[in-house]
Design brief:
Layout: H1 2-15, E1 19-20, E2 28-35, E3 38-44, E4 47-52, E5 62-68, E6 72-73, H2 77-83, E7 96-108, E8 111-120, E9 123-136, E10 139-149, E11 169-179
Antiparallel strand pairs: 1-4, 2-3, 2-11, 3-6, 4-5, 5-7, 7-8, 8-9, 9-10, 10-11
């Protein structure tokens, strides 16, 4: 009986993809928008991610990313203080944003579509993120850019709903680097 259980456990390890460790130091999440027509990029310095991905069975993959909203850095303290206010991210009430996949669809040639739920400021939307995948030095590298509309997540309320100063279109850029297993 013990031998049968050991064989089942070994088979499960060999068949199921393992949770990869994400190297946050080599990974990044940022948001690019336009302010008065000029591209502006802010980076999130604190986030975590989990990835389960086997390139031989990409449709069985799963991923999640959780972002610390207060870590958003536009490169200037005055702007950083502004973005955590209720009109923007409201970091006191909604300290985290997240993305959790519901499906991963292989498109061939190192390209995937990751469908899932994006939650920002307490509002969840179903989105589909285009993702490129490759291995690099024994690590899995996932990169992509997800276009969203900030007003769908109530980012920029009150006077900031006017998109003539800050555009509605935002591109969330990500690079997730994970160790194999």
């Amino acid at each position: 009986m013990k031998k049968a259980l050991a064989l089942l456990a070994l088979a499960a390890v060999l068949v199921l993809p393992a949770l990869a460790r994400v190297d946050v130091a080599k990974s990044s999440v940022s948001a690019v928008s336009k302010q008065m027509g000029v591209p502006v990029e802010g980076k999130f310095s604190r986030f975590s991610a989990e990835v389960v991905f086997d390139p031989a069975r990409p449709a069985e993959g799963k991923a999640s990313v959780e972002i610390d909203i207060a870590s958003f850095d536009l490169g200037a303290d005055e702007f950083n203080r502004e973005t955590v206010k209720p009109e923007w991210f409201n970091a006191a009430k909604f300290p985290r944003a997240s993305f959790v996949t519901s499906a991963i669809r292989p498109l061939g040639a190192g390209r995937l579509e990751a469908a899932g739920k994006l939650t920002i400021k307490g509002i969840s939307r179903e989105v589909v993120a285009p993702v490129s995948y490759r291995t690099e030095g024994g690590r899995q590298v996932f990169e992509g850019a997800l276009p969203i509309r900030r007003l769908q997540f109530n980012i920029g309320e009150g006077e900031w709903k006017d998109t003539s100063t800050v555009a509605d279109e935002v591109e969330i850029r990500f690079r997730i680097v994970a160790t194999g297993k």
